[in-house]
Structures are given as structure tokens and as C-alpha cells.
Automatic annotation (TrEMBL):
InterPro entries assigned to the protein according to its UniProt record, in alphabetical order: ERAP1-like_C_dom (IPR024571), Peptidase_M1 (IPR001930), Peptidase_M1_aminopeptidases (IPR050344), Peptidase_M1_dom (IPR014782), Peptidase_M4/M1_CTD_sf (IPR027268)
Protein name: Peptidase family m1 domain-containing protein
An example Gene Ontology biological process: proteolysis
Keywords per UniProt: Aminopeptidase, Hydrolase, Metal-binding, Metalloprotease, Protease, Zinc
Boundaries of every ERAP1-like C-terminal domain copy: 118-259
SUPFAM superfamilies on file: Metalloproteases ('zincins'), catalytic domain
Pfam families tied to this protein: ERAP1_C, Peptidase_M1
Cofactors required: Zn(2+)
GO cellular component, one term: membrane
Domain Peptidase M1 membrane alanine aminopeptidase span(s) in chain numbering: 11-92
UniProt organism field: Cordyceps javanica
Family recorded in the similarity comment: Belongs to the peptidase M1 family.
């Protein structure tokens, strides 16, 4: 059976909360809430007598959490209008403010992150906006990445966010370099793609030593030559890392590329080039040019 029983205690508490929030007492002796059967309007904040569609006020005793939250949201929004919209002139009427206050009054939970822990917004980097953390939190997240506590998507997104906010001038380049150092042992192509893209030409020209120190551990870990057993992501990682190492002047990488180039010279005259040789050739040319 539909009733207002579940909403009445909430309405009384909400009026008290709004009085404290705004510092202005509710001026009327009572507050009527009316469910209008067949109404097409969602709700109307008439002063002291709010009208609702029946489904926006009346709920079943066994209603689920989603339904209760929706009705609660509507009721709190209309009650907030008793101040913003009814107790002030029309110049102060703003639908956004009652909506914000309605959500704010639904619940409040405070989460304190332990000082030795970390948090990351947008889990698995599922949202399409940049996140600006403080340098301290960037560093803490980078340490989490080093400890393999971040997913590949989170690590890649964190690096992309750091590069973007530095380019926009919000934090110093040194923050990105500190973050990058914590990802030296990373083996994900996608993370390295973002990491090296963040070290733009203006930075890398003056930081070849830093770049070489950053890339050398992963460069030594991977097999320089492509193999038919490599999947397409592994091949891209090898291309990316070895070309970057060569561009930073790593002598071992350059020498390996030159040796492979000499060995592959006859293959270049063939009508068909094996896929693994084709994959290696681009980075060999870059290494030899360097």
C-alpha cells in the first residue's frame, strides 16, 4: 500500500537541517505535502503546501533503496525551495541550489585515507576528464604503481593526467620526472607510450641522460629482436622502448641495431619480408641514424 508514512519523519528532520544550514527559521506554522492523483507535474514548491505526483511522494512500505532515494531527493529539493525561491525574491530563485542542497542533505560520510595509503579517482581511468592531484599524492600514486598496486589502465591514466596538467602549467615538470622514475620497471606498452609521450622534445633534448637511465632497465629486460611468438602489443613495446633508448644515445641498443641491420641486409632484397624482420627494421633505421 502506498503511504506518506516513510517520508514524514524525513520531512521533519529536513526542515530542522535546512533551518540550521541557512540560519533562517521556517516561517510557517506547518508544511503540507499533497499527493495529486493524475498530476502530470513532478512536484511544485508552493509555499507551505507542496504538491507532488503520487509516485513522487507515496511509497510502499517494502520499497527498494533506489525508489526511496528518488522520492527522498524530490522531497528534499522541494523543501529547499521553501528558502530558495519562496522566502526570497525571484532574483534569488535558482533551481541548481535546491538540487545541490537536497543531495547534500541526503547523507554525509567522511573517508579519511591513512597517511601511508593512497587513493585514485576514476577507477581504471573510466572517466573522460583530467584529475589534478597534489605533487605529494602524485608521488604516492607513482609508488603504488611501482609496487604493482595499480591496474594497467590506472597507471596509464595517471601518467597521462600528470603530463596534461604539467603542460597546462598546474604543477612543475619535476613532479612528472619523479613520477616517471617510479615506473622504470613497468612492462606495459600502454604505460610506456604515455610516459614517453609526456617527455616531449623540449624536455628530452635537455634530459637524455635522465631518459637513458629511465629506459635502460626495461630495454635490457626485453629481447631486442621481434619473434613470431610476440603478440602485437609486445611488438609495439619492443619498438617503442628500443627506439627511445637509441634516441637517448644508449650505445648497447645502437650497436645491437647496427648488427641486426647488417645481418638482415640480404632479406631486404626478398620480395616477401618476414613479419618479425619488418617489425625490427623501423627501429634499426632510427638506431643507425642516431
Amino acid at each position: 500500500m502506498l503511504s506518506t508514512g516513510a517520508m514524514l519523519p524525513l520531512e521533519a528532520r529536513a526542515l530542522e537541517l535546512f533551518e540550521r544550514e541557512f540560519g533562517v527559521d521556517f516561517p510557517l506554522p506547518k508544511m503540507d505535502q499533497i499527493a495529486v492523483l493524475g498530476s502530470a507535474e513532478g512536484a511544485m514548491e508552493n509555499w507551505g503546501r507542496i504538491t507532488y505526483r503520487a509516485v513522487d511522494l507515496l511509497i510502499e512500505a517494502n520499497a527498494g533503496a533506489g525508489r526511496r532515494r528518488r522520492v527522498t531527493d524530490i522531497v528534499l529539493h522541494e523543501l529547499a525551495h521553501q528558502w530558495f525561491g519562496n522566502s526570497v525574491t525571484m532574483e534569488w530563485l535558482a533551481r541548481g541550489r535546491p538540487r545541490y542542497v537536497g543531495f547534500a542533505r541526503l547523507s554525509l560520510e567522511i573517508f579519511l585515507v591513512p597517511p601511508d595509503s593512497f587513493f585514485k579517482l576514476t577507477v581504471d581511468h573510466s572517466s573522460v576528464y583530467r584529475t589534478l592531484y597534489s605533487p605529494e599524492i602524485f608521488t604516492r600514486l607513482a609508488q603504488a604503481g611501482q609496487a604493482r598496486a595499480l591496474s594497467i589502465a590506472d597507471a596509464t591514466g595517471l601518467i597521462a593526467d600528470a603530463a596534461a596538467v604539467i603542460e597546462a602549467g598546474y604543477i612543475k615538470t619535476s613532479t612528472f620526472l619523479t613520477l616517471a622514475q617510479n615506473f622504470k620497471g613497468e612492462t606495459s606498452f600502454f604505460a610506456w607510450q604515455q610516459l614517453l609521450a609526456g617527455l616531449d622534445e623540449a624536455v628530452t633534448e635537455g634530459l637524455e641522460i635522465f631518459g637513458e637511465e629511465l629506459i635502460t632497465p626495461i630495454d635490457r629486460k626485453i629481447d631486442y629482436q621481434s619473434s613470431e611468438a610476440d603478440d602485437h602489443v609486445d611488438q609495439q613495446l619492443k619498438d617503442l622502448i628500443t627506439m627511445s633508448a637509441a634516441m637517448c644515445g644508449d650505445e648497447e641498443t645502437i650497436e645491437a641495431a647496427q648488427n641486426i641491420h647488417i645481418q638482415e641486409e640480404p632479406e631486404r632484397r626478398c620480395f616477401y619480408t618476414p613479419p618479425n624482420i619488418e617489425n625490427d627494421r623501423g627501429r634499426n633505421y632510427v638506431s643507425i641514424w642516431k
